[in-house]
Hints:
Elements: H1 2-33, H2 36-50, H3 53-71, H4 74-106, H5 117-120, H6 123-150
Helix pairs in contact: 1-3, 1-6, 3-4, 4-6
Amino acid sequence: MTAVLLTAAVLLNGIGAGIMLATVVGIVPFLLTMPYQRYVETVKFLWPRYDPMMPILNVATVVLDVALTFTATGRTRTLVPVAGALLLSVIVISVTRNVPINRYVTALDPARSPADWPTRDPRVRWRNWNLLRTLLATAALTVNAAAAVQR
Length: 151
């Protein structure tokens, strides 16, 4: 059972971390180059495609890591809670930082930018939080993979 849970944790964590890395490498730099209207339209297009997939991947991996805390033995048992905690921090940052920014942007009218848009543009802030989430998700993947190797 432990092998199955570990395999699933590494797989789901890897998919989530990979998607986040692709966002850091390609999508965010592209969003930063866009004018207001195109940026808002793009976020409105992308967000429903990433949500609910990313929360499902991250929460499922945390659940697997918690289950492994009780079923695994040895070094694996000490590593999986670390991976789960790292992914829990990804979830907290998502819910408290990135999701509110996404909600703000998707509520905007692409045809009319706010007068104070240059001071309210959240792209750099979103990028910074997303980079932190990506680093944490990648660290969790490293720990989950190490746990699998220890098994």
